Amino acid sequence: MLMRSKVTFVGLLMAYALTATRADGGVITLFTTNPTTSAGGTGSFDILLRNDMGADVSISSFNTIMEVAVNSGITFTSVDDQISSPNTYIFSAVQNAPLGDVSSPPEVALSDFVNSSAVTVNDGSVFGLGTVYYTVDPTTAAGPVAVSFKMTGTTTYASNVYDGATVDLPLSFTGGTITVTSGAAVPEPMTAVIASLFFGGAAARQWRKRRQPSVRLV
To answer: What is the CATH number of the domain that holds 57?
Structure first.
């Protein structure tokens, strides 16, 4: 978990963030993009925020944790703010580094906050909270790997909302999927040796054949 002097997300406020609702049913929706990566390869996905509150909100900070299953074959390696177009990072640039923490696999934690004021997010607008990079183990079977929001570690704070107080907003979560495809087949060592001998022998025979003198009767 990333620790911030100003942002203390874990505790009773966390429970409120996950259960609170507005009278009009508005929420802040967190979701991800869904990449496809071959076994043995690398990839990335964006964590995105959409304002579904029904009105503009001012957001000053966020904290989120995502996870995959143990032994899924996915290893999170780093986090940055290079959100894929057309979306952009919610605070334009990271305000309080580091943005992400990958030191507690199979989790990745992200958090940031502005030092003053807040960012206005218009109703219906989408912004990025971070881009997460990962590797896929070469032995990972082809198929979907679920990437889920951890329910004990996601809070979004807003300022200048509810009489200017800093409060946590009601959230909705949609996890993502990393689709793993089969990597390039790597032959067994003995198979590679046999293939090398076969093709090498065929090439040698063809070379000797070309070197034999030809006789043409006139």
So the answer is: 2.60.40.680
